[in-house]
Structures are given as C-alpha cells and as structure tokens.
Amino acid sequence: MDIIFSASIIAAFLAGMVALFAPCCITILLPTYIASAFREKKNILKMTLVFFGGISAVLIPIGLGVAWLAKIFQNFHNELYIVGGSLMIVFAVMALFGKGISILPMAKQPNPKIGGWKSVFLLGLFSGAATSCCAPVLAGAVTLAVISGAFWKALIVTFAYVFGMVFPLFLAAYFYDRFKLEKSKLIQGKIWEIKIGEKTFFFHSTNVFAAIIFLIVGAILLYLAFSGDAFWSPAFQVRIGNFLNRLSQDVFAALSKIPDVLWGVLILGIFGFLIYRAVKKENG
To answer: 51, 57, 193, 201: least CB-packed within 10 angstroms?
Structure first.
C-alpha cells in the first residue's frame, strides 16, 4: 500500500484494487456482493453502483479526514461484526423466502417485489464500515493532497481509491450485462416445491445459493467477534495481498509516466460510462 502515499490518482486507484483483496476487505465485501448480485439477476450494473454508493458513503468521508468515524469503527470492531453477522443471518432468511433484496418471479407470486436497492445499499454501508481498516492508508494520501492546496485532487484521490476497490465488481457486472448472463440456465435457476404437512413452500435455487453465502458470512463474522479475533486472516490471504501489493507497485512505476490529470479524466470517464450503461439497461 506504500504507493498510495504519492497522492497520485492512479496510485490510489491501484491501491484500492489491492485493498479489495486485503483480508479485512475480501472476507466481507466480496461474498456480500456476490450474494446480493446473484439474487438480483437483472440490473446488476445498477445494483453495483448502489453497492458502490453504500461503500463510498463510509470510506470517502473517512478518506477526506473524518477521523472520528474511522475511530468508531476501529474501537467497536467486534460490535460491528456482531451486528453485521446478525444482519447477514437475517438476510439469509429473507433470501431463502424470496424477500427484500431481489426481483424474483416466485411461484404463485405474479407481482415481483421491487426496492432491492435499499438492501444492497445497506450491504454496501456495512461493507464500507467493515473494510474501514484500509482507510488510514487512504487518509495518508489525501492528507498529502490537501497539504498541496488542491482539495479537488484530494476528493478525486479518495474517489479513485474507492472506485478501484469496487472496480473488479464493476467489470464483472458489465460483462454480466453485456453477455446477458441473466438468461443462462444457471442464473435463471428453478423453483423447488417442498411440502411440510399441509403447507407447501416454494424456494428458488438462486435464493438458496444467496442464503447459504449470507449464512456462512454471518456465521464467520459472529465467530470472529465472539472469539475476540476480528482481524484474523489466513496465511494464504496475507501472501496474496503481499504479492498484489508488489505487483501494483511495478504497474504504478510503468503507468506513472502518464500525467495524473489524464488518469483523473479516464477514471471519471469510465465511471460515467458505467452510469450510462446502467441507465440504458434499465430503460431498455
């Protein structure tokens, strides 16, 4: 993560991508995104933007100097994991019964429920809070940018960092929409009918998959919280993180020859294009 202290936009973007694979980030952010996205099926790009908005609502203020917010998350990390783990288990139950997050055509339910963006945004907020352990590195870079007298650059550096963290998810969502994967048999899934006594329950396969992910993440969070080891990470994750950090420094050395302003324009342009594609998808 040392490259981000150059207060460079491209360095912040690369550091954000590396941060996604940090133990405290990927353990929370990636599974929650996959579970919510897998249930959504349609408008994945739009929901990724909503997820990004939730993360940004936490990390951007921290990056711009709201130190007390990061301190709260740090001091109450175990409590955050307990709340988050409980929330994941609630989402697991909701997912299993087709409630809350997605737009799914359940049997005998001709009118699908809409409003999943609220749950996805909430997951983004929690992911941002849980991954705020990476934010002090970002704050160092932004401090340098602010000292230089360019607050606009501090804002873009912060945005580039958070965008870099979610960028792999944006790529996955873009190609998901581009190749219309929601029409594949795997994503479409099927409805399972289960009779218990005189009652009949209907479960969608993708709901069950999402519920399992939420349940596993929730159980892990609660275990880490009550074991008092919320910052635990397996050795292989640490090795992967170190490798990506070294790789990003090599990539930064090659890309740093391009003026920073061009990177700022490019990153904002890509973000604008993703918004355009999401709006076009929804209206199309």
So the answer is: 193
Residue 47 near residue 282 (C-beta atoms within 8 A): no
| pLDDT per position as a tens digit, 188-203 | 788 888 888 888 888 8
- Residue pair 6/242 in contact (Cβ under 8 Å)? The answer is no
pLDDT, one tens digit per residue, over 188-246 is 788 888 888 888 888 888 888 888 988 998 898 898 888 877 666 666 666 776 787 78
CA distance 137 to 6: 11
Instruction: Please say if the pLDDT value at position 108 is more than 80.
Output: no
- Contact status, residue 262 vs residue 8, Cβ threshold 8 Å: no
What are the structure tokens assigned to 51, written together? 């997820």
Q: How far apart are CA 47 and CA 44, in angstroms?
A: 5
Q: Using CA of residue 202, residue 211, residue 129, residue 219, what is the dihedral sign?
A: positive
Question: Which DSSP string corresponds to 163-204?
Answer: HHHHHHHHHHHHHHHHTTGGGSHHHH--EEEEEETTEEEEEE
**Token output for 121:** 């945004």
Position 109 confidence tier, pLDDT thresholds 50, 70, 90: very low
